[in-house]
């Protein structure tokens, strides 16, 4: 039963194969097994590839099954349409388009399986790319908010510098009236004279201005710092919101690109393996000599072709014979005087009716 199934997969004529030797049947069973297992691998490869896209086992399995059946049908068609000829060059020319198609199928099948085989290495490449994308994203978002954050911080620094400058001014005035009282600077007279009072009044006025400036600037600084925290929160939120997009950067295209960044040689060997499997039935047919099945198939085709040619010749001969008979029949009818007079009478009546109709139309 399994042997019959694989022969069916090979696309060979089961009626002809059934009359062949056991060795010939085994040959086509082997070809059919190759076609079948290639389709199974195509199903597995496509299912895994689509699972990375849809994240659904049922959907990936459904479309993977369709893809596997498609590859099975294509391989079966490719193998079954290659026929042995008398010249190897003729066979090779006949098989060339099929070999190209088989190569394309092999590459398409092998790529998803390569992704599965090198999954750990690909995950490492993707992790590195995700980290780089996260850093670049954070820098891009920071640059986006940089102008507002810098302006806000510059405003806070300016307000603080005003307070610091005023504090230095008050400290200098304080030092001025103290040293005036001590007699170490200014008039160099110890005691609280008129100059001391002027300096003390200047200091007290500056101190009041400092207190007022601190109250005013503190309020503005508090508002600016609140705004700065809000800007930082917006920045952090922007980074957080975009992180899931970066984390989900592991689709089919991303994995194919990551695979291309790995060493080429292991990937090449896997692709060559599938290429050899996919083209092996075609190569086997090209390299093998004409066998029992090929002769019987050729004999059946020639017999059918001969039958078609005979039927075509008989139809052509029948057509010529019928034409010759009808030529003679109508020649005899042509010489019949009674039929001639009848035709002449009918034609005269028709011409008379046409003439009367024309005259009536002309009068109107």
From TrEMBL:
InterPro entries: DUF4407
Coiled coil stretches, renumbered: 149-176
Listed name of the protein: DUF4407 domain-containing protein
UniProt keyword RNA-binding present: no
Domain of life, per lineage: Bacteria
Transmembrane stretches, start-end: 28-51, 57-74, 264-287
Species whose genome carries this gene: Flavobacterium urocaniciphilum
Keyword Signal in record: no
Keywords: Coiled coil, Membrane, Transmembrane, Transmembrane helix
